[in-house]
């Protein structure tokens, strides 16, 4: 049921999440993001290294320009909150464990001091 409902989640312009069916629209209470990335794999596809992320509803998302990764830093705690665009305007929180694994995979860009990973010939920053 959870997987089925995950396909009808929508984020509206008012910043609220809803389950939307042809018959009804139900507001959801979401603490941060409606999905969580629980694991990832790195594969070679068409000669390019590609990161494939799996969410808590077993959806597999390829890290690319279409599905980018972004990291917000909390002003008070300086804690990172990494997110992956799953579809349209819905993001998944990347779990702490997965984020730390990505940090280990990352390269340091000495020009801007950013940790970066490469997927599908694109560069994604994990922050400083």
Number of domains: 1
Beta percentage is over 45%
Mean pLDDT: 95
Helical residue percent?
10-25%
Q: Provide the spatial order of strands within the biggest beta sheet.
A: 6-5-4-9-8-7
The name of the CATH superfamily reads duf1285 protein
Global shape: globular
Q: What is the terminal-to-terminal distance?
A: 40 Å
CATH T-level fold name = duf1285 protein fold
CATH architecture: Roll
Q: Give the structural class.
A: mainly beta
Description:
There is one protein chain. With 128 residues, the chain is mainly β. The chain has one domain: Roll (duf1285 protein fold). Helices cover 12% and strands 52% of the residues. The chain is built from 2 helices and 12 strands, in the order αβββββββββαβββ. The strands form 3 sheets. Strands 6-5-4-9-8-7 form a 6-stranded mixed sheet. Strands 1-2-3 form a 3-stranded antiparallel sheet, with no helix packed on it. A hairpin with a 4-residue loop joins strand 5 and strand 6. The chain starts with a helix and ends with a strand.
In a few lines, what is going on in this structure?
The protein is mainly beta and 128 residues long. It is 12% helix and 52% strand. It starts with a helix and ends with a strand.
């Amino acid at each position: 049921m959870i997987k089925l409902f995950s396909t009808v989640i929508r984020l509206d312009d008012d910043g609220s999440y809803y389950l939307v069916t042809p018959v009804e629209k139900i507001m959801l209470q979401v603490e941060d993001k409606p999905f969580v990335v629980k694991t990832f794999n790195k594969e070679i596809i068409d000669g390019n290294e590609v990161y494939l992320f799996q969410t808590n509803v077993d959806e597999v998302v390829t890290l690319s320009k279409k599905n980018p990764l972004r990291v917000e830093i909390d002003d008070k705690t300086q804690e990172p909150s990494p997110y992956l665009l799953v579809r349209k305007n819905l993001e998944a929180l990347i779990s702490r464990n997965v984020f730390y694994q990505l940090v280990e995979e990352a390269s340091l860009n000495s020009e801007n001091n950013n940790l970066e990973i490469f997927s599908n010939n694109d560069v994604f920053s994990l922050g400083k």
